[in-house]
Write a structure and sequence with these properties.
Layout lengths: L12 E6 L11 E6 L2 E2 L5 E3 L5 E8 L14 H23 L5 H8 L3 H4 L1 H24 L1 H21 L3 H13 L4 H11 L6 H28 L4 H17 L7 H14 L4 E3 H4 L3 H4 L2 H17 L1 H28 L6 H6 L2 H27 L11 H6 L2 H12 L8 H30 L3 H29 L9 H14 L1 H15 L4 H14 L1 H11 L11 H14 L28 H13 L1
Parallel strand pairs: 5-6
Antiparallel strand pairs: 1-2, 2-3, 4-5
Helix pairs in contact: 1-7, 1-8, 1-9, 4-5, 4-6, 4-7, 4-20, 5-6, 5-9, 7-8, 8-14, 8-16, 8-19, 13-14, 13-20, 14-19, 14-20, 14-22, 16-19, 18-19, 18-21, 19-20, 23-26, 24-25
Length: 615
């Protein structure tokens, strides 16, 4: 090599030569420049505002940049990311639930009633319900990492004035800000969709769901020790310490949001002298991309789904009721266990029964996924969305059974041993996990690109109804049949009856779910559109899967339909960003959080626009 000439780094630039046909016809050599594993010359041209091609700029699409997306992370890296998210999610739900242990102390310090003190629990959970919907679209536009860091930082910041508050209303105000600042599962579950193919996601989703429900159990266990041995302000200091640790761990997590990752790669390509842009960059600056009228419409959609989509409405109410039971338990456990003279620590440890139930349900779902995965290999007919409710048919019945048993144990000694209460709470825990897991899984399968709106309604119901439960739980258990031996039994019997009625939609949608989806303004037409695009994208998906299959996702373990679905989901990820219709990118139907034209063709966009307008 000539002196003074430095070779290009092997990991950045490589030359790939096409020597022509094997006949040696002497065709001119063709050279394709590959930068960071991306064949620049194969990238499509950008589109001008008038719809014509722009040869001066190329577009880095998700298919071409697949190896740089979260889908291509190694399994080890994915699970390291997920483990950090597990800790983050526990810290969020820990913060939501542990407040109940500060109520007795605040009651004495501020000279207020217990009912008034519980308003801090109520306002946090209600604002949490809205906060999740506010943060999620921004995470899809700006990236998961920065949004979660901002969320965690703000939540941690608001703990300080709560701990130092001279009055209850200051605690109330900053608890409201804390709830509104909490990003919640809408972002963490989004990270799962960033890294796993649809047919591979269940293990990861179940792991995140476990972290979500576990946080509400870890809180009373730790809170019992705080109530008994420390001042009530330590509820907030402990939450701050836990939140700071979670934020520090998350600081080492890479970005997973596809458009943001592609924009980063496009910038690296431009530094190498190639005019390559990500679709997010071509849509213009953040200010140009945002259409606030459209954004408001998209933020309203989860609530619209709750009111107009029977699948979302009924299953979300069941899910919300199930989560509210846990917050009822935060108040009622102490009343019931007082019959066995349990102190604060022992009452907190009694929540281990719920945790055991969650772990049992998690293991059952792992077994079920393995079984269903084997069926899906050769029988695509079994891939109907209602298949996701199959295990729930058995487990949902444990909720009314567990509540009925809890009512019986409320009679107390000597006829009943306290261990019976833990056994029945474990049954409730199994049902709670199964309801949350299965309803999310079913909504994702039924609504496709609109699943964010469907699951958003589910999450809203869980947080909102849990917040209301914080207000009525104690009066509910102290006002009915007051002064009789049935005082603690009747309320649980009422909850058991409500739970029994709430399970009916699960069986109905398992049997008649297809009819319900066919009547939906979104589910049926989106399913048809997804089927039409499947063959068109097969070649690109097969090529991507052959290059990036990991040992855990080999062709022996992963069906072709999984790969086909993965890039369909990848295609829709950019549609779910908080953006307006930028110049030259009209025609993309608004999803839960955006309407910039991403991977879809003009014809697909127009068809989906007709779907949206008819809805």
């Amino acid at each position: 090599m000539a002196s003074g000439v430095r070779p290009a780094p092997k990991d950045l630039v490589a030359s790939v030569r096409d020597l022509g046909s094997s006949s040696g016809s002497g065709d001119a050599e063709k050279e394709a420049v590959v930068v960071n594993g991306i064949e620049v010359e194969s990238l499509p041209f950008a589109t001008k505002a008038d719809g014509s091609a722009d040869p001066s700029r190329r577009v880095l699409t998700e298919e071409k940049g697949y190896k740089h997306l979260g889908f291509a992370f190694s399994e080890r890296k994915k699970w390291l990311v997920l483990t950090s998210i597990f800790i983050v999610q526990i810290s969020m739900n820990f913060n939501a639930a542990i407040y109940a242990n500060a109520v007795p102390g605040m009651k004495k310090t501020f000279g207020i009633s217990a009912s008034k003190a519980r308003l801090g629990q109520f306002i946090f959970l209600v604002m949490y319900a809205f906060g999740c919907e506010l943060w999620a679209p921004w995470s899809e536009e700006l990236g998961r990492f920065c949004v979660l860091q901002w969320s965690l930082g703000l939540v941690n910041l608001w703990q300080i004035p709560c701990a130092l508050a001279p009055s209850f209303w200051m605690v109330f105000a900053f608890r409201a800000l804390g709830g509104l600042s909490s990003a919640g599962g809408s972002v963490t579950l989004g990270m799962v969709a960033d890294m796993w193919e649809p047919a591979d996601q269940q293990y990861a989703v179940a792991f995140v769901v476990l972290s979500s429900v576990a946080g509400s159990v870890v809180a009373p266990i730790a809170g019992g020790f705080i109530t008994q041995y420390l001042a009530w302000t330590w509820v907030f200091w402990i939450s701050l310490i836990f939140g700071a640790v979670a934020q520090a761990i998350h600081a080492f997590v890479p970005e997973t949001r596809a458009p943001v990752m592609l924009a980063k790669q496009a910038k690296l390509l431009r530094k190498q002298g190639h005019e390559v842009y990500a679709e997010q960059e071509l849509a213009g600056s953040l200010r140009k991309r945002i259409d606030f009228r459209e954004a408001f419409k998209l933020m309203w959609r989860p609530y619209q789904f709750l009111l107009t989509e029977p699948i979302v409405g009924f299953l979300s109410l069941l899910s919300g009721f199930s989560d509210a039971l846990i917050f009822v338990g935060l108040e009622s456990f102490g009343l019931v266990l007082a019959k066995w003279n349990f102190d604060h620590v022992q009452v907190g440890l009694a929540f281990i029964g719920l945790m055991v139930g969650y772990v049992i349900a998690y293991v059952l779902y792992m077994w079920d996924y393995k079984k269903q995965r084997a069926i899906m290999q050769g029988d695509t007919a079994n891939m109907v969305p209602e298949r996701r409710l199959r295990l729930l048919l058995w487990l949902v019945a444990l909720e009314p059974i567990g509540l009925f048993g809890f009512a019986w144990t409320s009679l107390g000694p000597p006829a009943v041993h306290w261990i019976a209460l833990l056994i029945f709470t474990a049954l409730i825990g199994i049902a709670n996990f199964a309801i949350y897991m299965a309803t999310i899984d079913y909504m994702v399968a039924a609504y496709g690109p609109y699943s964010a709106s469907a699951t958003g309604g589910n999450g809203f119901c869980r947080d909102f109804l849990a917040g209301i439960a914080a207000l009525y739980a104690t009066p509910f258990y102290t006002s009915i049949a007051k002064g009789t031996r049935w005082q603690l039994t009747v309320p649980s019997l009422i909850l058991s009856a409500i739970a029994l009625v709430g399970t009916i939609p699960v069986y109905y949608f398992y049997i008649r779910g297809e009819d319900a989806r066919n009547k939906s303004k979104y589910a049926k037409q989106l399913a048809d559109a997804r089927a039409e695009k499947r063959d068109e994208r097969q070649e690109a998906i097969t090529r991507a899967s052959s290059r990036h299959t990991t040992p855990a996702q080999s062709r022996r373990t992963t069906p072709a339909t999984s790969r086909r679905g993965s890039l369909e989901v990848a295609q829709t990820t950019y549609q779910r960003s908080l953006v307006g219709k930028a110049r030259g990118y009209d025609g993309m139907p608004p999803s839960r959080a955006g309407s910039v034209k991403g991977m879809a063709t003009v014809s697909e966009s127009a068809e989906l626009d007709r779907t949206e307008s008819s809805a």
